[in-house]
Amino acid sequence: MRSAWARIDLGGLRHNMARVKQLAPHSRILGIVKANAYGHGLVEIARALTEHDSVAALGLARINEALRLRQAGISCPIVLLEGFFDAHELPLLAASQLQPVIHTEQQLQMLERASGLSAPLKVWLKVDSGMHRLGIAPQQLAAFQQRLRACDNVAGEPILMSHMACADERGHAQNTHQQAVIASIRALTPPSSLASFANSATLIQFPELQADWVRPGLMLYGASPVAEKNAAELDLKPVMTLCASVIATRDIKAGEAVGYGAHWVSRQATRLGVVAIGYGDGYPRHARTGTPVLINGKRYPIVGRVSMDMLTVDLGDDDIEAGATAVLWGLDRGLDTSRDETSEHSDSRAVLHVEEVAAFADTIAYELLCNIAQRVDYEYVE
Ligand SMILES: Cc1ncc(COP(=O)(O)O)c(C=O)c1O
């Protein structure tokens, strides 16, 4: 019996990649693989995304992840979405051909003052169009572009970029505001200079913002980036299936409490399954009683608190034995396909979307995916 493992479906990843191409046929793809490829395994995902030049570049937030990719022989362009943090990192960026995003005056000065770089850097220039997290003000754009063009440490024209704060909610007023700001900054840049404004939600909801480069992350991993549609409706396939074994079953009587804090008390006699996964594996401790788990294609509710290494599900009258596989999210290849809850897009296997589980734990799919702990085994399948 195995404890917890993540099955990563590279065929699903390729399918989602093809969906990005279908939705944004005129844009180059900057595949976002930060945070261990959203928990899917940095090097394996980067290899799969870069084979046959499927993506034109990879995007990361941390230099250490970029260096891991270079050490693994990944040679495609790599963009550092927060740029560099200190001047001493610049020689490393030049030597490893990493492309920083410039978003502050300080970074620009470090770049202007650097000497002895092995090669000039290709850079991206981030403008704050209203998210107010990273980026220079639109009024600073012309001056920054001029200084970057004049800087010997910069190769070619900077690629203009900005990020949308609310693209997951199509009708949010912030979208109209940011679109107007983006239109105004585009009007200030020469048509020959390239631009990028779209993460997954933006490229789906606002095709007019796809521009020269799209920057999909979440949708590559098969989760829905938009509030109104689930992954199946967007024709995205879950890439990660998180599994664990049922390691024990026990019958309890009505009125008996289960787990830490005696938090949940059974109303009737029932059978419990103890599943070998907990918050020590990255499964969210805040998943409420009622959060679904799939076993043999059927949904069972978690009951009681999730503990570090285990959680319990209410199996009712079902005859499930220790050794069965529980699917915490993803595709269940279990035996009972008669209770198939899938759409035509999910290969007629039962599916539990990570977004659904996230809602039960008051969080988002991003957090669940990138929180998978190191002790979880990974297997890569086609
Ligand atoms: C600048 C930037 N672009 C693209 C992405 C990818 O976003 P998503 O995973 O929503 O597609 C991120 C993710 O946080 C980001 O920070």
From TrEMBL:
Q: Name one GO cellular component term.
A: cytosol
Pathway assigned in UniProt: Amino-acid biosynthesis; D-alanine biosynthesis; D-alanine from L-alanine: step 1/1; Cell wall biogenesis; peptidoglycan biosynthesis
| Annotated Alanine racemase C-terminal domain residues | 239-381
Q: Which GO terms describe its molecular function?
A: alanine racemase activity; pyridoxal phosphate binding
The entry's substrate-binding residues are R133, M308
Q: Which keywords describe this protein according to UniProt? A: Isomerase, Pyridoxal phosphate
Q: Which Pfam family, just one, is annotated for this protein?
A: Ala_racemase_C
| Name this protein carries in UniProt | Alanine racemase
Q: InterPro entries, alphabetically?
A: Ala_racemase, Ala_racemase/Decarboxylase_C, Ala_racemase_C, Ala_racemase_N, Ala_racemase_pyridoxalP-BS, PLP-binding_barrel
Task: Please give the biological process terms from Gene Ontology that the record holds.
Answer: D-alanine biosynthetic process
Name the enzyme group at the top EC level: isomerase
Catalysis: reaction(s): L-alanine = D-alanine
What the entry lists under SUPFAM superfamilies is as follows: Alanine racemase C-terminal domain-like (SSF50621), PLP-binding barrel (SSF51419)
Q: What family is this protein classified in?
A: Belongs to the alanine racemase family.
